Amino acid sequence: MIDAHQHFWRIGENDCRWPTADLTAIYRDFNPVDLEPLTKAAGITGSVLVQSQESDADTDFLLRLANESDLVKAVVGWVDLKSITAVPRIRNLAQHPKMRGLRPMLQSLPEDSWILSPDIEIAIAEMQQCNLSLDALVHVRHLQYLRIFARRHPKLAIVIDHAAKPAIAAKGFESWAKAIAALAELPQVYCKLSGLLTEASMEQGVDHLRPYIVHLYHLFGAERLMWGSDWPVLNLAPNHGNYDEWLTLAKQILPVASATELDEIFGTTAKNFYRF
């Protein structure tokens, strides 16, 4: 099995500015030695390591960790896609054997339509030339723009992180369901079954998560849906914030028809998307 989304950081190093001290559950260093016992106990044999800082230093740090870790099979880094140095930076990163994708942190940018900026088109072209995919860290409000972007770039593999963070606590199913369905129509767009627990409230449990997970399964199918822990951010979840518990919960809720589909969602889809 593959964990398609996890993070490492060291507080105060490698331009690490998040998490902040108020997030006590995750305000400490997280390294491979912290994750490996959890993945071993859960039967996870590989992971996709994803950036958490808007920083070249953070991406370089992740690639160094990947060199030292057999668990990490792929790295998703960050590049300033508007920078005049974006193209050579992308070209250089792509030479690393575990570099597989880039993630602009769209959720925190001031313009919801940032992904449509003509200033990033040269960098996007270089990503495709270097066979790198795009992780889309977005909220529901960004999906309309992401769909336009995806239609412009039908050969660019895109995965929606955390299912676009639906407002589960605010019972925002309908608007989310419609917006993500429009993107699921595009065959190069995938989705991560991750990050949902941190969007729910303390009072919400399995029954509240079920319609979101079932909807994702029916939209993307096992061949375009991949499970991720979002560890250690998972530790912020008010319920079921244990690594193995989230894995078990996702398996129980998914209305899969066969063992093959389970293998895809919990392994093969991530391997195919990230090419390892």
Would you give an account of this structure?
This is Amidohydrolase. It comes from Cellvibrio zantedeschiae. Belongs to the metallo-dependent hydrolases superfamily. Pfam families: Amidohydro_2 (PF04909). This protein is of the alpha/beta class and 276 residues long. It has a single domain, classed as Metal-dependent hydrolases (TIM Barrel). It has helices spanning 32-42, 56-68, 86-93, 121-129, 143-152, 173-184, 206-220, 243-253, 259-274, and strands at 2-6, 46-50, 72-77, 99-102, 133-136, 158-160, 189-193, 225-227. α3 runs parallel beside α4, α5 (143-152) packs parallel to α6 and α6 (173-184) runs parallel beside α7 (206-220). The protein is globular, with a radius of gyration of 17 Å. It starts with a strand and ends with a helix. The model has no long low-confidence stretch (mean pLDDT 96).
In a nutshell, what does this entry contain?
This protein is α/β, with parallel strands linked by helices and 276 residues long.
List the helices and strands and how they pair.
Elements: E1 2-6, H1 32-42, E2 46-50, H2 56-68, E3 72-77, H3 86-93, E4 99-102, H4 121-129, E5 133-136, H5 143-152, E6 158-160, H6 173-184, E7 189-193, H7 206-220, E8 225-227, H8 243-253, H9 259-274
Parallel strand pairs: 1-2, 2-3, 3-4, 4-5, 5-6, 6-7, 7-8
Radius of gyration using CA atoms only: 17 Å
Strand order of the largest sheet: 1-2-3-4-5-6-7-8
Secondary-structure element order, as H and E?
EHEHEHEHEHEHEHEHH
Strand tally is 8
In the CATH hierarchy, what is the superfamily?
A: Metal-dependent hydrolases
Give the DSSP E fraction (strand runs of 2 or more residues): 5-15%
What value does the average pLDDT take? 96
